[in-house]
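Work Package 4 report. The design task specified in the project plan requires that, given a folded chain encoded as structure tokens, an amino acid be chosen for each position. We show below one input record used in the internal validation round.
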């Protein structure tokens, strides 16, 4: 019985009746191995592509015999492929907290304002703390800044941002409460600046 097969396939051959033996011949016409020559059953993995033959013959001393031949040819089972290993996504590093350098500001005797000259750069905040009274008018402005542009935020005594007082160079407003106000100066690039802070007398109640 001719049989075309490929390397890697598994061939199973079995003859179930008495009096008949089988041999599995390779493409070269000879038994594949000693275990495939005149046996009742053979199973193995084929090593090369080609035309094989299953040869039946009676046992010695028997002129003829009925037989029933079972032949199974199966393809190799593919090895399971492991999914590619993927690195977990790297969370971006949180932005670094700016370095805050605080300085309490006191007005000179007899004056309602002060000029402050300093420098600030990326990742830095120059914080000036001013104690003021409820009802006073505070004015804050940057009068000079170079080479970068310095800006400031104004914070209430509780730490909340004053509305519309973020990233600006001039602010003036009535103070809703007494306490320590903070003026935070920052810049995207290194900048030398002059900051003016003023707090006028309380507005008359009438």
């Amino acid at each position: 019985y001719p049989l075309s097969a490929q390397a890697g396939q598994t061939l199973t051959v079995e003859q179930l009746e008495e009096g008949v033996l089988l041999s599995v011949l390779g493409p070269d016409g000879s038994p594949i191995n000693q275990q495939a020559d005149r046996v009742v059953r053979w199973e193995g993995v084929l090593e090369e592509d080609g035309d094989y033959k299953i040869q039946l013959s009676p046992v010695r001393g028997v002129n003829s015999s009925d037989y029933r031949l079972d032949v199974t040819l199966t393809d190799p089972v593919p090895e399971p492929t492991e999914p590619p290993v993927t690195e977990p996504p790297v969370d971006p590093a949180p932005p670094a907290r700016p370095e805050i350098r605080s300085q309490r500001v006191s007005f000179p005797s007899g004056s309602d304002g002060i000029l402050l000259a300093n420098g600030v750069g990326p990742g830095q905040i120059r914080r000036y703390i001013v104690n003021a009274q409820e009802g006073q008018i505070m004015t804050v402005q940057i009068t000079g800044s170079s080479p970068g542009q310095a800006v400031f935020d104004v914070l209430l005594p509780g730490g909340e941002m004053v509305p519309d007082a973020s990233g600006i160079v001039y602010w003036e407003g009535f103070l809703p409460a007494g306490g320590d106000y903070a003026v935070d100066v920052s810049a995207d690039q290194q900048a030398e600046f002059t900051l003016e802070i003023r707090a006028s007398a309380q507005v008359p109640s009438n």
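The two ends are 121 Å apart (CA to CA). Validation will be extended to a larger panel in the next phase.
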